[in-house]
Amino acid sequence: MDKMMTIAEIWSQFQSEWMLVEDPETDEFLEVQKGKVRYHSKDRDEVYRKAVELHPKRFAMIYTGTIPKDTAVVL
User: Fold this and answer.
1) How far apart are CA 25 and CA 35, in angstroms?
2) Which end of the chain has fewer CB atoms within 10 angstroms, the N or the C?
């Protein structure tokens, strides 16, 4: 996909999936506001492999699902 999509469009079209977003536009808090969805999958590792394959210059990874309650998130 080469179409620029807003974060709202991404969330509504791809539910509970991992996204590889190329050329992300961010706000002052570095939260993605829009970008080009280059790849998406329910399998996170598949999306990471695609990022290695495509090797985009600028990209973001987004998950549009909810994180389970007992999951630790490391930033």
Assistant:
1) 6
2) C
- Global pTM reads 0.85
- Identify whether the C-beta of residue 3 lies closer than 8 Å to the C-beta of residue 13: no
Distance in angstroms (rounded) separating the CA atoms of residues 22 and 56: 7
Question: What Cα–Cα distance (Å) separates residue 68 from each residue in 64, 65, 71, 72?
Answer: 13, 9, 6, 9
DSSP 66: P
What is the rounded (10 degree) CA torsion for 62, 65, 68, 71? 0
**pLDDT for position 68:** 81
